[in-house]
Design goal:
Blueprint: H1 2-15, H2 35-42, H3 50-60, H4 71-75, H5 78-81, E1 91-93, E2 98-100, H6 102-113, H7 124-135, H8 151-161, H9 172-176, E3 183-184, E4 187-188, E5 199-201, E6 206-208, H10 210-220, H11 231-243, E7 254-255
Parallel strand pairs: 5-7
Antiparallel strand pairs: 1-2, 3-4, 5-6
Length: 256
């Protein structure tokens, strides 16, 4: 009964025109978590996401592919070379002439520079490398590139965020703009600021990407999820990062 009432409230809220969250009211997802969850995230010795960061550090220094080179062979110490990188992705990729997300860029380096096999999205190794690179930007403000070549994709991301979809006929904005002060199924509805990805979720018992989280939302409203790495997801990431500009990177964050 409680779940049905929550869903009814959400549908009611979603029926109203959602409005973007004023800058002064922006909050990280961490602010919606319990004190216990925030404490786990803040303590690197207790944060389970740090296991993926450590795995990523190992992979960073490990030669891979026909080139026999590691990430460190080209980039050196990640603490210096990767500082701030995650804060400005997705970015425009001149080679493909399209926006690329951080996971795509890591895989591009791996296949083209190291001549290694591609890493499937959401694989342990891919998430480990993304978590390690993302962790180097922890505490830095999210800084979306001021690149006009990204404008069209960013606008498409906004359109997708506000487009109703699925059998429940809900848009991302129906929850994250219109209903962020509420709860759904006992969980807080956050403002969808992607400050902590890759992120550790107790629900997953693992680290996962923002695209995995968005696919979960799409399944929740009974829509057909986009494929991992799809242009639609990268467009949504661009838009979400523009909403979160200036908020600190928290990778790896912890959520229920």
């Amino acid at each position: 009964m409680r779940a049905r009432l929550a869903l009814a409230a959400l549908l009611y809220a979603g029926s109203a025109a959602a409005q973007a969250i004023p800058a002064a009211e922006r909050r990280s997802g961490t602010d919606f978590m319990s004190a216990q969850t925030r404490a786990v995230q803040a303590d690197d010795t207790a944060n389970p996401g740090m296991l993926w960061v450590l795995q990523g550090e190992t992979l960073w220094n490990e030669p891979a592919g026909a080139s026999g080179r590691s990430c460190a062979s080209c980039h050196g110490e990640a603490a210096a070379s990767m500082r701030g990188v995650a804060a400005r992705y997705p970015a425009f990729d001149a080679a493909s002439g399209a926006p690329i997300d951080l996971a795509g860029k890591i895989d591009q380096c791996r296949t083209q520079r190291q001549q290694a096999e591609t890493l499937p999205r959401e694989s342990e190794d891919a998430l480990g490398l993304a978590a390690y690179v993302g962790h180097q930007s922890r505490g830095m403000p999210i800084a979306p590139p001021n690149d006009p070549r990204l404008d069209a994709a960013r606008a498409e991301g906004k359109r997708l965020f506000e487009t109703r979809m699925g059998q429940l006929d809900l848009a991302c904005s129906s929850c994250h703009d219109a209903y962020w002060r509420g709860r759904l199924g006992g969980s807080a509805v956050t403002q969808a600021h992607p400050t902590g990805y890759p992120i550790y979720r107790l629900e997953w018992q693992a680290v996962g990407s923002l695209q995995r989280r968005m696919r979960g939302c799409m399944v929740g409203v009974r829509a057909e999820p986009f494929a991992y790495g799809a242009a639609e997801f990268i467009a949504l990431e661009l838009y979400l990062n523009s909403r979160a500009a200036g908020m600190p990177v928290e990778t790896p964050a912890v959520r229920p």
